[in-house]
Amino acid sequence: MEKTFECATCGIVTKEKKHLCNPVEVKSGEVCGSSSLQTAMMCAEETRRLDYFCTSCGRPAESADLLCSPRQVG
């Protein structure tokens, strides 16, 4: 099973731990729907590679399969 990580600083969810400044491993089914910081609070590097966000809770993620109601940025 593939691991999922969340940045404890900005809330982005990713499968690549190396992309986060403060990574914490989470269960993939438990990240979406919980509270998240706004995108404006994200690390500058993350805002450039952000591909999706959840239309339910606003959580940012690198891929749609990490969110319950994904929408692609842009």
How would you explain this protein's 3D organization?
It is built from one helix and six strands. With 74 residues, the protein is mainly beta. It has one domain. Strand 1 and strand 2 form a beta hairpin. The N and C termini lie far apart (30 Å). The mean pLDDT is 74.
Give helix and strand order, one letter per element, not per position. EEEHEEE
Q: With helices defined by DSSP (H or I, 4 residues minimum), what is the helix count?
A: 1
- Rg (CA only): 11 Å
Shape designation:
globular
Helix content: under 10%
Quick one: biggest sheet? 3 strands, antiparallel
Low-confidence stretches: none
What is the SS-derived class? mainly beta
Work out the count of structural domains. 1
Question: Which oligomeric form is depicted?
Answer: single chain
Mean pLDDT across all residues, rounded? Answer: 74
Number of strands: 6
Arrangement of strands in the largest sheet: 2-1-3
Beta-strand percentage?
Answer: 15-25%
How far apart the termini lie comes to 30 Å
Short description:
With 74 residues, this protein is mainly beta. It contains 1 helix and 6 strands; from the N terminus they run E-E-E-H-E-E-E. The longest helix is centred in the middle third of the chain and has 6 residues, at 44-49.
Q: What's the structural blueprint in terms of helices and strands?
A:
Elements: E1 4-7, E2 13-14, E3 23-26, H1 44-49, E4 52-54, E5 60-61, E6 70-72
Antiparallel strand pairs: 1-2, 1-3, 4-5, 4-6
